[in-house]
Protein 1
Amino acid sequence: MSESKLRKRITQLDVFPKIERDYVDQSAGGGFVTMIVTFILSFLIFSEVLEYLNAQYDYSVVIDYTKNNNVYMNIDLTVAMECDNLRADMYDSTGTTTYAKAALSFTPTHFSVRNAVNFNNNGKAEIEGENFDMDDLMDNAEKEDDSWSSYEDEKSSCRITGQIDVHKLAGNFHITALGHGYGGKHTEHNQLNFTHRFYTFSFGDYYPGLINPLDDSVEITEKHFSYYQYFLSIVPTIYKQESSGRILYTNQYSVTDMSADVSKSHDLPGIFIKFDFEPLLVKIVQIKKSFFHFLVRLCGIVGGIYVSFGNIYRILFTIYNLIMRKNQKDSSSESEHEPLVAQSPVEH
């Protein structure tokens, strides 16, 4: 087969016919539609590029299938009382009681509310939780945490830091004064002050960068017999990156609270944190679209807008021509039926 015949057969397969420019009728209306199409395409292409560059997150809730029966409770808070007058205890729904002070570090320090906000006005966790960066989260998980170093500066407050191994059951962690509800020396009433600030409070392996509702929150009181109660609902959480395959196991929690003056009741003053684990698991998967998927969507947008507006323009142009032809036909019909003006006879 000669080259000319092969080329002729290939030419017959051409589904993109070319129209000579001399046969193309350009109009102001077509130019206006072209401007609109160009603006819409530019906006949609820009939006599609942004969506491709930004990671997407897929959230799902399933039954908790993890096998770990114990988790760490990470504690870092300051109480406006001397360490010698405080004790910390933990018990769970099995009846197991732990003298938590032996597992935690009680360090004398000064009390500071810098950068902290009242818990009831703290919207930071909600705002940052929706816009977290999983790459930063994964990178921070691989770093060593040194935020629990000792504070040597003297003062009348106590910073409580450390980790407690707790069962994955309902439990209660509380901080009280010696001699109030438990044994030990009696703490004078004028020394009671349960003003406190949470630096961080979380469950599971501690990863800097995770946002928890109690982080950087503070409660201030001027009363000696103040009672603070926090109710935590803990949900196991898995963060996963599909691109790298990295998985991060941790826990999230929601919290409600209450406080009261118990000077005239039989309740104990102190800080009480009740928690329970939900039987559900939240999976947060970072999804990155492939470049091929991005090209397919881009071609679909460009082709769809171009064809759709082309068809709309042709329909409107056809309707416009039909209206114009009808008007011309009506005007010509009226001119044909106009009566002739009679001429007056010439007088001799």
Protein 2
Amino acid sequence: MPFLYRWRVMLSPIFSVVCGIGCIETFTVSSRVGMCSLNFIMSTMFFLYRPSRKVFASVLLLLLGFGLCACTDNKSGRISVAVTIPPLQNWAEQLAGGRVDIVCAVPDGGNPESYDLPPSAMVGLSKCRLYFSCGYLGFERSWLGKLSENNPRLQVVDLSEGLELLYGTHHHEEGHLHDGEAYPDPHIWCSPRLARRMVETMYRALTEIDPDGASVYAENYARIDRRFAQLDSVLTDKLRPFKGKVFAVYHPTLSYWAADYGLRQLALEPDGKSPSPQYLRAMVDSARHVGVEVVFIQQEFDPRQAETFAREVGCRTEIINPLAYTWSEEIMRIADAFIR
């Protein structure tokens, strides 16, 4: 057997294994299948045919480079963590202090009730070890099962677990459990008081998955908790004179925020659908009766019906963004807009 051929026979399975390991460690389930199949075909051709010295060297370097790069990328030591919405991204980044990579599933401007995850985003999410969810957002109910199936290592942390959840404020057409109970209102991040407990859960999960960063996480958590406690204190003092007052909102995002400070929310969107003219007329009558002075409109929704409502009631409109990355500033801005 010629020398070159003997080395080809010996090296082909070795580089096949190297590349296979790279595929397994680096790519999603579907990508692994494709890349490993390609590697098998290349290795088989390399074994069966007698390439020239130049082809031999080229294929050898290609296989070696791919195998080493694939393995090296996974050995960077970085942990990837996913969240559903930008406010959670903000909190996670503050907690992590740069120790982990944070991936936000629903981008700024996306609607977490109906967002459809593009295939390109699946690649980044498939590499995550943790996923912090709000618990009952439409996106989470539709996609978390698929993400877990695609990435068996993914640990989903439900930040709503153990919290006092509100029912009957946020219905959608599909929003019913098998036992007949409606899903709870998912907008827990809008409450500064619940936000403190959510960040605590995030802190404990990060410490568990990355014990070496425990001191960093503990220091950052203490700082965030102090800021959130101060925000709650300021809002309590600011909104105390308005206790019992009613505001209108297009989508019922502010249920927990209202509950924190003794306010009442009148939602224009029934059951996750655009209000009918009859329903809108009934809401106008209710708003006039209770003295609504402001209607909040989330920036991701069409404002026309809320503007019509405001004209009929004689109240002002305020555009808000509870999904803003700058969460603390937006929560304070909503309070200022309410009392303006």
Protein 3
Amino acid sequence: MKTKNLIRIYILFFLSMCQISWANNLSDINNDHVIGLPEAIYALGVTSGLVLQNTNESVDFKDYFFVEGSEYFYQKKSYDESTGANVLNYEYAHHLSKTINNQNTFIECWYGVTTYNEYYTIFDNTNFLSIGDYWNGWYDSQIKIGTSQMVPGDIFSSMYQINDFPYWCEFKFLGYEDVETQAGTFNDCLKISKLNSYKWGVLFSYFSKNVGLVKQVYTTDNDSYTLELIASLNGNTSYPSNLTIKRYYGQWNLTSTPSTTDAISFFYLPQNGNSAVIIFNNFPYLSQYQTISLITSDGSTFTSTNTQTDISATISGSTMSGTYNYVYWDETAQETKSLNITFSGTMGTN
């Protein structure tokens, strides 16, 4: 009853403003020279966070998109059509910049189910451009994804080529939204939508100032995923504020002949649902990084978040060790094969 009375008071208040309001007022959402019922409902939506409020204030996309030296841990929930099961994975990312091809290049490094880099630059101190990625190298044409003076409603459409094949994509600045994540609540995030010609669906991304990407939602008729920030670290600033990252570095070893070895990194976040990721450098057969999501119930013994991955790890004080049985399909031999791997490491600095 109190809620209904409050709504009536709001509506009556905004209706009472009709006689002193004019067209082009920001509150006159339908430009009918009247502040009436539609405006009252809109105002209630803004107050409750259901509607994005219009503003002409410009923002610099770089302040939201890229944070030099930051590290990120994300939780990714998706749906596997082949098994009909929900899938939970963790992803690790970090930002760095360097001079490549005589231009300052911003690099996003991602370690998840797939491992890749994405490359960006700023042209004429104004336009934020996507210029390449791990899989395709440098694009034949650059993709505009933002500017130094963005306002809600801005649309950035690009026709571009990758390996001489034409594509199209569109980024739209939808406005601002408060976003709740496991890492905390981030206010006034930029909400950006992305459409492209090579993949059906809409990708919604949320960026927090001086933090970076805090959430993504991808939806299609038959596929979807949600990516949510669970932890971020940039120098002495962390989200959540009590963030602890236990880091172990060492080597993996292939037990079969010929023996092979390379580096591993193991990151454990005790306060984030006891989640962890292990990254294998130059993983055999794949010839690239492989990242596996782990979880623990006791803080010492870790298993994969997905039952089809046969891996186990144990940490004891400053040491970590484990085994991994990697099963794959050998296209040449037309049979299933496996690799038996052991790994170990010691604790590094946070």
Protein 4
Amino acid sequence: MTHHGREAPKSPAIPVTVLTGFLGAGKTTLVNHILTARHGQRVAVVENEFGDIPVDNDLVVETDEEIVEMANGCCLCCTARTDLIDILNRLARREHLDRVLIETSGMADPNPIAQTFFVDEEVASRFRLDAVVTLVDAGHVTPHLDAWDAGEHHTGPGRQVADQIAVADRVVVNKTDLVEAAELDTLLARLRGINATAGLVTSCHAEVDLDAVLGIGAFDLDRSAQADHRWLTEDDSRHWHDPEIGSVSVEISEQLDRAALERWLGDLAAARGADLYRLKGIMALAGQDCRYVLQGVHRLHELRPGAPWSAAEPRRSRAVFIGRGLDATELTAGLRACAAPRVTAEA
């Protein structure tokens, strides 16, 4: 984003982790684990509850950290997002703040929360979205997924559960002590079918290595540009029983015309934005010596320069689309249509 006029020296953007997951998955337990760990960071926690009587704040352990509670009877994904912006702007004025955790309601859709860091200029200048971390209750999630498989899309929580998994950058499969090893293996395979690009971590009582849930850098353009592309080359041949939710990976060898790419992304967002949970990729643009990193959430996307291409590296474009009812053939054709015209030397 461009700002005009005299600017004060900028402080590093504060990383924000969104913790989501269905009711009882262990989000507050993970928050407590983070707050009591010896990491030396100052952390602010934003608690959101779906209900009129606040409870979660009383469940968070007593620490020196700031706990900000939003108990206004609705989820952060609804009208309370304006409250979130106000809270973040207030936290930005606090000294020595190293990190923010946003614990959503179990019924929340984390996508609108993630979009806040794209659409609000003041928030985007002070904070950076680190990752969406979804907790899954290994002992109780299977019936929800089974109900979704059976077509109960509007009568139960299956859709919320599936959507929270699909949008995650990291999935923490919690309460693994409640299931047998074979059940856990089956569940992990099922989760990979819903979201092939998210890293999976298992835990009991939400006791995880903090490096597995903090500092992921899922929206870090520089880190993504220099990554080893594992997040772009995951095997997406494994599918969940319900084909509506899944990921599509596209790779093309042609360099792309930026204007054509921007037009196509705009058309795609207009037509399928509600179903497009995440979009990320490394783009090879014609006439550019560096790769471009593509990040998107629903109808919003960013395309920014990243690391230079090395001399021996093939310049190809790779993208992963995560969402509902995505058509691999359509997406591949759409991206391929953005190829720049080949320039042939005159005889």
